[in-house]
Structures are given as structure tokens and as C-alpha cells.
Amino acid sequence: MIAQLRQTLRRHRAARRPRRRPAAPLPPALRLPLPSPAPLPMHASEGGAAAAADAVVPFRTSLAALLTGHILRDGEVVMLILKPSLWFIAFGSMRFVALGLIACIAASLWINNSQVVASIVYTATFVVAGRVMWAVLQWMGRLYVLTDLRVIRLSGVFSVEIFDCALRKVATTRMTQTFRERLWRLGSIEIVPSDEAYPPNVWQTVRRPEEVHRIVQSTIDRAKQGCQPGA
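Above: the chain sequence. Below: its structure as C-alpha cells.
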């Protein structure tokens, strides 16, 4: 009986509730566009970074910037640009490495004090590492450039030393090879100016020295022929 009364009450309540009709869509003329989100503020540095990210910026080393900005002249054409072989580092450090090994072996054989031997080994290692690092810096700062007008050598660690000689003022060129360079098929190109007041310009420890010497000599010959009257 109680269950029937509850069902009857539920039916009356459901009949009294108003039915919700779905809202009719608005006509196209009354529809308003949703506002677009405002752009976030951007600083000038951020805008520049974004523009730089979109643009392709060529990579220029300090030596390349030095060449284009301070060394090369207007209209000068680069014929050849080289760096020494990595064996330049080994050849420059070989004596210090040999002396360090000899000192370590002699200390271990003739000195019985282990602390003294350890100090000698540490000192020799430090000296050899310093000499290798100096050779690396010398290799990084050395560059050989041949243009249609001059032959240039850049060297130096803390300050760049520039040696250049006009091709028409070159007396002779020759290729030299030490015993170590012959073992690894390397060589050096010696360029002697006609003016004896200037020292020879040496391109040390270059790869394919025969080919490099041939290119240098042919470029010098063309420059001298172009300077002749009536050429």
C-alpha cells in the first residue's frame, strides 16, 4: 500500500514539471563572431631572436672575418686557403713528450723514494700537456692563403701576425720535406721574396705538398705574365 502511494506521488510531481524545449538557433544575421585572443606582448629582443631564427645566418669564424674585413682587398680572388695538417701539433710537441718519458723512466729506475718519483711524473705530465696545448693554439691560429695578387700567412696565438708578399715580387718557390714529413706524405712550401730584406714565407706541414706547390707556382707565373707590358 505504501509503495503504491509513493508511485502515485512521483507521477504527479513528474506531470507538474515543465518540459524544457531546445533553444531555436539564431539566424545567420544575428550570429556574432567570437573575439580572437589578443596577441601576447613581445619585447624587441624576442622579436629579433625570432627573426634571426627564421633567417639563415652564415657562420663566420674569426679568421674568416679577419680575412674579409681587414686583409683581402676589393676584387681580390682567393685561389687557395689551407691550414697545416694535424701532424703539426705532434711534430711541435714530440721533443717535449720524449723528454718527459725519459725523465719519468729515469726517475722510476734510479730514485727509490716513491713520493719524489710521483712528483717528477706529475711535473713531466704537466709540462708535456702545456706544450701540447700551446701547439694546438698555434695550429688554430695558423692559416695559409693564396690569392691572385698575394701569398699570405697568418700565425700567432695572442696576436695575429700577418706575412704577405705580392706574387710579382716572389723570386722563387721550393718544396721541402723533413724525414718526419716524408713518412706521412707531408711537406712545406718555402716562398722566397725577391727583396732580400724580407724573410722567406714558409707554409709548414701541408697535405699534398706537390699539388699545393704546383698551384702556387702556376698562380705566381700567371701574375708575373699579367704584369708584363703588352701582356
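The CA atoms of residues 173 and 191 lie 5 Å apart.
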